[in-house]
Design a protein that fits this description.
- By secondary structure, this protein is an all-alpha fold.
- The protein contains five helices and no strands.
- Helix 2 runs antiparallel to helix 3 and helix 3 packs across helix 4.
- The chain is elongated, with a radius of gyration of 28 Å.
- It starts with 34 loop residues before the first helix and ends in an 11-residue tail after the last helix.
- The model is unreliable at 1-5 and 9-24 (pLDDT under 50).
């Protein structure tokens, strides 16, 4: 059995890769291409170009979906995840985004913030209901574009 050591009786232990500021689930930065691709410079460069083009197409589709029907932001983040398989800058952007989304989720789940949001939503709905009631009292079920000047 290969223990990774030259001396008998010793067992090689993998070093702990988690630093003081890193979470346990964060992977190291860099290319995630297979080793046989990384070993050949031309193949690795063409792999990076392919990943960039595919990621660009996905991000472009997400940008188009922002004003049109479709999950625009989800597709954009999917394209960023494709880029993050190869490019460090995309990995850093994705880590920052994940951290901010987690922080926003924690803030939204805070009981004081939830209470405030419920109160503001209720006040907004009451205002809309009052305005709708005034409209119905004054004009009835007549559509706004069919109301004649009075």
């Amino acid at each position: 059995m290969d223990t990774g050591s030259d001396k008998p009786g010793e067992v090689a232990v993998a070093p702990d890769r988690v630093g003081a500021g890193e979470a346990a689930d964060e992977r190291e930065l860099g290319s995630r291409a297979p080793e046989f691709i990384k070993a050949r410079r031309v193949l690795h460069m063409s792999w990076q170009v392919g990943v960039f083009v595919v990621g660009l197409a996905v991000v472009g589709a997400g940008v188009v979906m922002l004003p049109l029907p479709g999950p625009g932001w989800l597709v954009i983040f999917g394209g960023m995840a494709i880029w993050a398989t190869e490019f460090v800058w995309a990995q850093l952007v994705l880590r920052w985004t994940k951290r901010k989304v987690t922080e926003a989720t924690q803030r939204a789940l805070d009981p004081r913030v939830r209470r405030r949001n419920i109160i503001l939503t209720t006040v907004g709905l009451v205002i809309v209901a009052v305005l709708g009631g005034i409209y119905l009292w004054k004009f009835g079920l007549e559509m706004p574009w069919k109301i004649k000047n009075q």
